[in-house]
Amino acid sequence: MHVQEWLDTVPPAAVYALVALVIGLESLGIPLPGEIILVSAALLSSQHAGINPIVLGACASAGAVIGDSIGYAIGRKGGRPLLTWLGDKFPRHFSAGHVATAERSFEKWGMWAVFFGRFVALLRIFAGPLAGVLRMPYWKFLIANVLGGIIWAGGTTAVIYYVGIVAESWLKRFSWLGLVLAVLIGLTSMLVLKRKAKKATAQMQAAERETVPAAAD
Fold first, then answer.
1. How is the chain classified by DSSP, letter by letter?
2. How far is CA 159 from CA 11, 22, 81, 126, in A?
3. Which whole-number Å values give the CA distances from 18 to 59, 89, 94, 101, 200, in the listed order?
4. What are phi and psi of 78, to 5 degrees?
5. What is each CA distance from 105 to 83, 98, 114, 117, in whole angstroms?
6. pLDDT value of position 46
7. Please, which residues have CB within 8 angstroms of residue 31's CB and are 6 or more apart in sequence?
8. DSSP labels for 181-206?
9. pLDDT tens for residues 86-117?
10. Which residue pairs from 131-135 have beta carbons closer than 8 angstroms and sit at least 24 positions apart in sequence?
11. 176-201, pLDDT tens digit by residue?
């Protein structure tokens, strides 16, 4: 069943809770399709009188901010061993190369890596935990987290909702296009990060090979 059609069978309160939960878990560090769920729910709100887009956007924003904050707390407590454990359990998402790429983003952009990371599929699962591991001051993390969560979740809800209203006669067709577009954006982001991660891994391995002979001498 199409995601949007499935959402249409559940009560509005359940839709709000589901969106907040999925986005919250994704922000916490669990790889889930938060963006796809949000786009589907926003489209549904444009044709379902019982689902308020303002409440939906607020729930999505709350899930994003709370999930990231929990991820920050877990990362701060778990430290580097947590990243190692995640790399062993989820090598596709938390490989050494991916972590290195994310760390370089944090080194370059600081707190704004948390803000901009909200708009990149793979970085959404890194931002909170990695900010905690790197011990970013919480007030900086919180500012970027709140701004990023509200603009991404609220903005996505508003844009998709109004496009759905304007294109009501094309809504069914657009819902497929919207989901496909969301998936393509997510896949593109992941492929770009994967390529950067491979490059970072190769650089790390090269550095290790150079260090070993030097240590032997």
1. --HHHHHTTS-HHHHHHHHHHHHHHHHHT----HHHHHHHHHHHHTT-TTS-HHHHHHHHHHHHHHHHHHHHHHHHHHHHHHHHHHHHH-TTTS-HHHHHHHHHHHHHHTTHHHHHHTTSHHHHTTHHHHHHHTT--HHHHHHHHHHHHIIIIIHHHHHHHHHHHHTGGGHHHHHHHHHHHHHHHHHHHHHHHHHHHHHHHHHHHHHHHHHHHHHH-
2. 23, 20, 40, 25
3. 9, 25, 25, 31, 36
4. -80, -30
5. 16, 11, 9, 9
6. 79
7. 90, 93, 125
8. HHHHHHHHHHHHHHHHHHHHHHHHHH
9. 666 666 666 666 677 777 777 778 888 888 87
10. 131/72, 131/75, 131/106, 132/71, 132/72, 132/73, 132/74, 132/75, 132/76, 132/77, 132/78, 133/75, 133/76, 133/78, 133/79, 133/80, 133/82, 133/83, 134/103, 134/106, 135/76
11. 565 565 556 555 655 665 565 556 55
Residues in the chain, total: 217
59 contacts 155 by C-beta, under 8 angstroms: no
Q: Tell me which amino acid residue 115 is.
A: F
Q: Which residue in the block uniquely carries the two structure tokens 């947590």?
A: 82
Tokens of 155: 């903005």
CA nearest neighbour of 121 among 63, 171, 187, 216: 187
Amino acid letter, residue 166: V
